Amino acid sequence: MKKVQLFCFEGKDIRSLTDENGNPWFVAADVCRILEYKKSTTAVLGLHCRPQGCTKMVLPSAGGKQSTLLINEGNLYRLAAKSEMPQAEVFEAWIFDEVLPSLRKTGTYSLRSQLLPAPRQWEKTFPSEFMKNVLKLYGQKYNPKKGTPQFVGHFINKYVYNCMDKNMTRELKAARAAFAGDDEVAFLHQFLGEPAREALQAHIMSINTLMVASSGKEHFELMFDRVYVHKNQLEMMLK
Predict the structure, then answer these.
(1) Is residue 4 within 8 Å of 17, Cβ to Cβ?
(2) 146-187: pLDDT as tens digits
(3) What angle do CA 93, 96, 100 make, to 5 degrees?
(4) Which residues pair with 16 in a beta bridge?
(5) Domain count, the chain
(6) Spatial separation of the C-alpha atoms in residues 110 and 103, rounded to whole Å
């Protein structure tokens, strides 16, 4: 199996791996959560899925390495077909029309094509709580009346943009430069289209949750490394 890749459907994460033959596998619990199955193991092993399309693998998680149930593409469709969730068909179409073709073509679900040639209208993207928690990690107090310290920008680049894609910061800066030369007339996130922007917002909330649960910067980095198997894992979301 190759590295874990993370995708985002309407703010909910789904982890995927590709085997040596290029076949995608999905974390059953993630799929069942999206499709609103209350008991993932029962839905997968007891009701809707074929056993030959199921396997287990040890994957990292927030609580450490855990044995994780995976399902193949066929079983994912079976779960979608049996789900009573109104958005099940939309989810199935998203997997079939966007995720799988991109995986088979490039080996990863890249959203680089979601960059805009011109910035969207500005709207607040990083909540005040997020900024407050970043400063808290560094032992500083949040004061919205003061300017943002430079290290906050470095933090955002490292744990947000570069986590989504190792080249994302560079490409966003290139998009901004192409639009306005060297003038910083817009923030990087203003050049993101959809669903990249939704993925960004979901990731920001995920990082904020880790910060809230952390006792300090070192603790945050430790948990970050456990949750995100490698720091470019969001080759899924923004990558």
Answers:
(1) yes
(2) 778 888 888 988 888 777 665 566 677 777 777 765 445 677
(3) 145
(4) 5, 26
(5) 2
(6) 9
d(CA 169, CA 171): 6
Question: What is the side-by-side strand order in the sheet with 12-18?
Answer: 5-9, 12-18, 24-27, 66-72, 54-59
Do residue 118 and residue 93 come from a single domain? no
- Report the chain's C-alpha Rg in angstroms: 19
Asked if residues 80 and 88 have their Cβ atoms less than 8 Å apart, the reply is yes
CB 188 within 8 A of CB 169: yes
- Region at 132 (left for phi over 0; alpha for psi -120 to 50; beta for the rest): alpha
Any domain includes 187? yes
Interatomic CA distance for residues 159 and 106, integer angstroms: 24
Spatial CA neighbour of 162 closest among 220, 224, 84? 224
- pTM of this prediction? 0.47
